[in-house]
Design a protein that fits this description.
- It is a single chain.
- The chain has eight helices and three strands.
- It is elongated and about 65 Å long.
- Strands 1-3-2 form a three-stranded antiparallel beta sheet.
- By secondary structure, the protein is mostly helical.
- A hairpin with a 2-residue loop joins strand 2 and strand 3.
- Helix 1 crosses helix 3, helix 1 crosses helix 4 and helix 5 packs antiparallel against helix 6.
- The protein folds into two domains: 80 residues, Winged helix-like DNA-binding domain superfamily/Winged helix DNA-binding domain (Arc Repressor Mutant, subunit A), CATH 1.10.10.10; 90 residues.
């Protein structure tokens, strides 16, 4: 059975369109540039170039480095055509995987401290990503983009990332304030406060807007 081309295949193919890479270089570049939009394991990223070779979208040749050799992958004309076709196809629906949110959804199996700990970890992880993107933008101002002709694309992508990180950070602060008034993670149900938040959401209004009255004990 021929290998199935996936979105990950196209992502690696797009990297090959920039320049030839070794498997190690591809994995490093993918982790650097794709992890915020299409995070995949190193094992998968190493297998994708081989799949592209089988499909005829890439070629590979040996390159000698001292006493060692390594495989270098390069895109083919067929790969260029496949990449061009992919850009006009229907995109996949967005998916989010945030374990801290899963912990929140099932927080009634644990304690408030457990839930707050999960939020702390989410804040730490998001903060690291946020700081990394800000620092990366600083390098771009000094000509640090490895493919300067593509800077406009990377920067527009970064605006989404930073806005997303800021939104998550704001939500974490909001969630902590709400949880700090909970007597427990269990069986609060439709409290007065929960009803207020539900009505706002039902009208597509943000509880994070700053216009929501602060939580009081009477709301619980």
């Amino acid at each position: 059975m021929p290998p199935r081309i996936t979105t990950s295949s196209y992502a690696v193919l797009a990297l090959l369109d920039l320049k030839p890479w070794t498997g190690y270089e591809l994995t490093h570049q993918a982790q650097r540039s794709l992890r915020y939009a299409w995070p995949k394991s190193e094992r998968l990223l190493y297998s994708e170039p081989k799949k592209l070779v089988e499909l005829g979208f890439a070629t590979t040749h040996k390159e000698k480095i001292g006493d060692r050799s390594r495989n270098v992958y390069e895109i083919t004309d067929e790969g260029h055509d496949a990449l061009s076709e992919w850009t006009s196809t229907r995109t996949q629906p967005p998916r989010m995987e945030v374990e801290a949110l899963l912990r929140l959804l099932f927080a009634d199996h644990g304690t408030i401290d457990d839930l707050l700990g999960a939020l702390d970890e989410l804040e730490s992880d998001i903060g690291e990503h946020h700081e990394a993107i800000v620092e990366l933008m600083g390098t771009y101002l000094n000509g640090g983009h490895p493919f300067p002709q593509r800077t406009h694309l990377s920067v527009l992508f970064a605006t989404f990332q930073i806005e997303m990180f800021k939104s998550i950070e704001r939500w974490i602060e909001f969630a902590r304030e709400e949880i700090s008034h909970w007597p427990s993670t269990k069986e609060l149900g439709m409290s007065q406060r929960t009803e207020i938040l539900t009505r706002l959401l039902a009208h597509d209004e943000s509880p994070l807007s700053g216009e929501v009255p602060r939580l009081t004990q009477q709301d619980l």
